[in-house]
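Thread: "does anyone have the structure for this chain?"

Original post by V.I.:
We have the sequence but no experimental structure in hand. Need at least a predicted one for the grant figures.
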Amino acid sequence: MTYVIAQPCVDVLDRGCIDECPVDCIYEGDRMLYIHPDECVDCGACEPVCPVEAIYYEDDLPTEFGAYLADNEEFFTQPLPGRKEPLDSPGGASRVGVIGLDTPLVTGLPPQAVQ
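Reply from O.Q.:
Generated one for you, tokens below.
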């Protein structure tokens, strides 16, 4: 099991969750943040600091955000548009910095109103 970042994060990128994550498993795309499912230790530190309530435990993910479970995994296991190879498990977000790319699901979304 893992935590998942869903649609409310798109175009917000608050990054408070990155500061709270003790294992450095939250990676930054262009429009959204992604939690690496194999690096996450399920501590839950990220969830309460998200100002838009975009982070859910996998079993608690609302139905309307169900596609984001696979999407978070695909961010790491599939080549992103503009990359030939998948990210796989780079061993910590701070090692790779901002990725600057998103999955097709996120890229295809219209700009989100930032609250």
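V.I.: this helps a lot. The CA atoms of residues 6 and 68 lie 6 Å apart.
O.Q.: and The mean pLDDT is 94.
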